[in-house]
């Protein structure tokens, strides 16, 4: 029984870590695209 609980805890922790990593990666891409849009607008305004 203890091994089953440990295995489930390990799987849950791994899944939560991977999903958080995906979220952070997506947020970083969105911020990067926003920065690029601002830079492009600034270049056009020159």
From TrEMBL:
| Record Pfam families | Entericidin (PF08085)
Signal peptide bounds: 1-20
Q: What is this protein called?
A: Entericidin B membrane lipoprotein
The annotated region (Disordered) lies at 27-46
Q: Which GO terms describe its biological process?
A: response to toxic substance
Per the record, the similarity remark reads: Belongs to the EcnA/EcnB lipoprotein family.
Q: Which InterPro entries match?
A: Entericidin
Q: Name one GO cellular component term.
A: membrane
Organism annotation: Paraburkholderia humisilvae
State the source organism's domain of life.
Answer: Bacteria
Alphabetized UniProt keyword annotations? Cell membrane, Lipoprotein, Membrane, Palmitate, Signal
